[in-house]
Amino acid sequence: MGGRLLAKFAKNSNEEFQINLHDHGVGKYIDIRIWSKVRPTDSRPSWPTNDGFMLDVELLIDLLNSLDKAISAIDEKHPSTIDAGARSPEGPSNHTGKPGSVEMLSNVKDWFKK
User: Fold this and answer.
1) What confidence category does residue 101 fall into, taking pLDDT thresholds of 50, 70 and 90?
2) What is the pLDDT of residues 104-114, one digit of tens each?
3) What is the C-alpha separation between 62 and 58, in angstroms, rounded?
4) Domain map of the chain by residue range?
5) Phi, psi of 102 (to 5 degrees)
6) What is the CATH number of domain 4-112?
7) Using one digit for the tens of pLDDT, what is the confidence trace for 31-77?
8) What is the pTM of this model?
9) 94 in helix, strand or coil?
10) CA distance 86 to 91
């Protein structure tokens, strides 16, 4: 799988989500995948599962906008459900739970083209 690790966070005690950036020469892709920590070895503490997907960075803004809509919909129905960063070791994100909060990520596509 490889790529450059951008972020990871726990799904449960045996699995984690990993977000990696891949450059295949013809384009850059984001790989969002579940990695298993069951039966780790000294050389490999986790390995990728088939659960996940790879996305062209050109579609990343569409994914982020769609996730923003989903978070806003959840937040409207259950305001206390979204606690940004509650499980993240990196701390809270900048997401406000309000429509349009993904606007701060409008330059993400340009950043990945570097």
Assistant:
1) very low
2) 444 454 455 55
3) 8
4) 4-112
5) -75, -10
6) 2.30.31.10
7) 999 999 988 777 788 889 999 999 999 998 899 888 888 888 887 77
8) 0.65
9) coil
10) 7
Q: Which pLDDT score, from 0 to 100, does residue 3 have? A: 87
Residue 22 reports pLDDT greater than 90 = yes
Q: Which residue has the tokens 């803004």?
A: 61
| Residue 20 CB neighbour total at 10 angstroms | 21
Q: Rounded CA gap, 94 and 105, in Å?
A: 10
Task: Give the H/E segment covering residue 10.
Answer: strand 4-10
- How many H helices and E strands in the chain? 2, 4
Tokens read off for 28: 């850059």
Which tokens go with 8? 């990871």
Nearest one of 58, 42, 99 to 75, comparing CA atoms: 99
- Amino acid in position 32: I
